[in-house]
Amino acid sequence: TKMQNYLLSSSVGPEELPTLKELSTSEICRVWSGASRYIHRQLLQKRAVEIGIGTFALVPVQASVEEGKVLTVERPAFIVNKHLRAFYNLECDETKIPDETPVVQLDFEEIAADTHFRREIVELCAHETLLCFSGALRDNKEVEFSFK
């Protein structure tokens, strides 16, 4: 599966990240901003988006609204792939995506059109960034991966 690409038993070397080396930080951010907008549009349509290392989805949570009253609301969440959790021995809250939620992949074509990059660049940038992310997890580094 695609997930296996991100289970690293050794550190990621620069030779595995040729696209990231060619792109500037602002170009990489542009690609991920496009990916973020794509994910946001899918969540608005009640779809989850699987990105290789996990899935963005709307999950039901209980919110206390007033004295003794609880309301179920949906909030966006990122659910780390169970293989990644097991492989790196990560502790994550057990969050379940509702069964009726359709799951889609990143649409690199659409993100490329939105960001004015070639489709291959978008796909490689995403893949190499996720490799970097997995490498940081493997090496127990603190990671911050922000999405708007």
Automatic annotation (TrEMBL):
Residues 11-90, 102-148 form the CCDC81 HU domain. Signal peptide: none annotated. Transmembrane segments: none annotated. GO terms for cellular component: microtubule organizing center. It comes from the Eukaryota. PANTHER family: COILED-COIL DOMAIN-CONTAINING PROTEIN 81. This is CCD81 protein. The lineage of its organism: Eukaryota, Metazoa, Chordata, Craniata, Vertebrata. The gene is Ccdc81_1.
